[in-house]
Amino acid sequence: MINKAESKKFSFQKAFTNKKTREKVDGWLFVLPFVISVLMFLIGPMIVAFILSFKKYSFLDGISIFQAKSVGLKNYINVFQDEVFKKALLNTFTYSLAVVPIQLVIALLLSLVVNSDIKGKTFFRVAYYIPTLTSTVAVSVMFLFIFKVDGIMNRFLALFKVPPNNWFSDPKFALPAIISMAIWSSVGNYMIIFLSGLQDIPESLYEAARIDGANKTQEFFKITLPLIKPTFFFNLIISIIGTLQIFDQAYVISGGTGGPLDATMTVVLYLYNKGFKQFEMGYASAIAFVLFVIILTLTLIQKKFFKEESFF
């Protein structure tokens, strides 16, 4: 027979086991909505898109993707032979190479300003951050008015006897105008992230540096930059991914055409046009995965350069 002590011990173990089981069940129930949403709206569509990238498929066909004709690697081969895609890729890289460094340098400088002891720094933080809260479509429309023939930009340049120019209709200036718009509208977001990194640096390090006779420049290069390296890496990755996925600005400015003369055509805009205007869903999916591989490769290269711990 089981004595009282053993009976109590058995009851306690059973209750403890049941409690752990309930906690596990409750935990899974809490994360289940997230898991379902990820499967339905992220992983599921990615799998479908990957399958589509090897098929010739259109929504107008009235068939499922599994009934669509398989074309093997033809879509991927055609992507690299497509002159418009090459132009879109060149525009996207040009845009990224121009926006990312300027964006991060300005954001870092602004974060240093609003992290200092200047008067009204709260006002400046809000003022610099407000453009990031504005809709991209609204910003694009605003810049359309700024850069039109009788817009503010041409009126300002007229003071210096510069002839007016229809910026967004000129292939030489359309992309640079979008670049200036992107920098203005998003730099505040990266400023806030840099600011959080700066505020994590212990003040005692600066005090010790001043005691040793370090000036502001030495403090910046010997203390600030090394300690915000993870923040800089994060901003760099997010900025590159964002610029390589540019769509809405180019769509609004060009009316979805990528003009003039494909000067504002980007990879994602071209993908959109192929998939939802020309209904070549298989080809559009192939473009999407080419872009995915490019972004992943660049991210891994940067990670190795910055010697960050692996995310994968």
Automatic annotation (TrEMBL):
Chief location bin: membrane
Membrane topology: Multi-pass membrane protein
Gene Ontology terms: cellular component: plasma membrane
Biological process, per Gene Ontology: transmembrane transport
Keywords: Cell membrane, Membrane, Transmembrane, Transmembrane helix, Transport
Domain ABC transmembrane type-1, chain residue ranges per copy: 89-302
Residues spanning the membrane: 28-52, 93-114, 126-147, 173-195, 232-253, 281-301
PROSITE patterns: ABC_TM1 (PS50928)
Compartment(s): Cell membrane
InterPro entries assigned to the protein according to its UniProt record, in alphabetical order: ABC_transporter_permease (IPR051393), MetI-like (IPR000515), MetI-like_sf (IPR035906)
Alphabetized PANTHER family for the sequence: ABC TRANSPORTER PERMEASE PROTEIN (PTHR30193), INNER MEMBRANE ABC TRANSPORTER PERMEASE PROTEIN YCJO (PTHR30193:SF37)
Family listed: Belongs to the binding-protein-dependent transport system permease family.
Name listed for the protein in its UniProt record: Carbohydrate ABC transporter membrane protein 1, CUT1 family
